[in-house]
Automatic annotation (TrEMBL):
<feature type="transmembrane region" description="Helical">
    <location>
        <begin position="61"/>
        <end position="85"/>
    </location>
</feature>
<feature type="transmembrane region" description="Helical">
    <location>
        <begin position="235"/>
        <end position="256"/>
    </location>
</feature>
<feature type="transmembrane region" description="Helical">
    <location>
        <begin position="180"/>
        <end position="200"/>
    </location>
</feature>
<keyword id="KW-0812">Transmembrane</keyword>
<protein>
    <submittedName>
        <fullName>ABC transporter permease</fullName>
    </submittedName>
</protein>
<feature type="transmembrane region" description="Helical">
    <location>
        <begin position="106"/>
        <end position="131"/>
    </location>
</feature>
<feature type="transmembrane region" description="Helical">
    <location>
        <begin position="151"/>
        <end position="173"/>
    </location>
</feature>
<feature type="transmembrane region" description="Helical">
    <location>
        <begin position="28"/>
        <end position="49"/>
    </location>
</feature>
<keyword id="KW-1133">Transmembrane helix</keyword>
<keyword id="KW-0472">Membrane</keyword>
């Protein structure tokens, strides 16, 4: 409106931070992310430690150190989706864009808040899972030190990957605007299609699988791939993942600017 001063980015960021933490689902999602990520990693390492030491699993011990990521990524997708779709569900999005007409600024603030929270939560979860799971592996003589190849990268990579997944889900939520539908699409693309694609024939099928978001981005969060799946090099895959997320977010922002809240 003429004569009305538009809020700056710092004000919008603060507002989004307050909204993020006042929604009850935020704490539940982050608690579940930690419980699944750290808890299941510890549990699986405990259950498999003896077999790993005997070489009976066919897997490297390193593949188990971030095993819980398979499930914690579900909560990252859920949280990223809810950051947007919960506002559509309650009608708060209309108030948000009325207060901040520059919609790109709204999306940017949501992305910053979500990225920071999920990065920290992802790293904390990965470190807790490593400490718990590696304790059992160490008892059997197959533990890994932080200085071993890929360990630190995977712990930090968990935060990077979960933050990227959150933004991926946020963009999907902006496009679809319905919680169940957006979450279903996100999970299908990351988990279902990503695994099914490995069944495609030939070299082209392998490359399709490697380039799908979950497979490309998840490599940076693994010390070693589970089941020996073909993946891109960790940082190469993460670069592809970031490009895919950025492209989807750009489309979402353009759509968000052009339609009713």
């Amino acid at each position: 409106m003429p004569g009305v001063r538009q809020p700056g980015f710092a004000q919008v960021l603060h507002a989004e931070w307050v909204k993020f933490w006042t929604v009850r689902s935020t704490r539940w999602s982050l608690g579940l992310l930690f419980a699944l990520g750290a808890g299941l990693t510890t549990l699986v390492c405990w259950a498999a430690a003896t077999d790993l030491a005997a070489g009976d699993t066919g897997e490297a011990p390193a593949a188990f150190l971030t095993w819980g990521l398979l499930f914690s990524q579900l909560t990252a997708l859920a949280l990223g989706t809810l950051v947007v779709t919960s506002e559509y569900g309650t009608g708060m999005m209309r108030a948000t864009v009325t207060a901040v007409p520059r919609r790109g600024r709204v999306v940017a603030a949501k992305v910053v808040v979500l990225t920071v929270v999920l990065f920290v939560a992802g790293v904390v979860t990965a470190v807790a899972g490593y400490l718990g799971g590696n304790w059992f592996l160490d008892r059997e003589g197959v533990g890994l030190a932080l200085s071993d190849d890929g360990v630190l990268r995977a712990l930090l990579g968990n935060g990077l990957y979960l933050a990227g997944l959150g933004v991926f889900a946020l963009a999907t939520g902006l496009l679809i605007r319905h919680t169940a539908a957006a979450l279903t699409v996100g999970m299908a693309l990351v988990l279902v299609v990503g695994n099914v694609a490995y069944a495609l024939p030939g070299t082209w099928g392998e490359w399709v699988a490697k380039l799908l978001p979950g497979n490309a981005g998840g490599a940076v969060a693994q010390v070693a791939p589970f089941n020996g799946g073909a993946v891109l090099a960790p940082w190469t895959g993460f670069g592809v993942f970031v490009a895919e997320v950025a492209a989807l977010l750009l489309v979402a922002v353009l759509v968000f600017r052009r339609r009713d809240a």
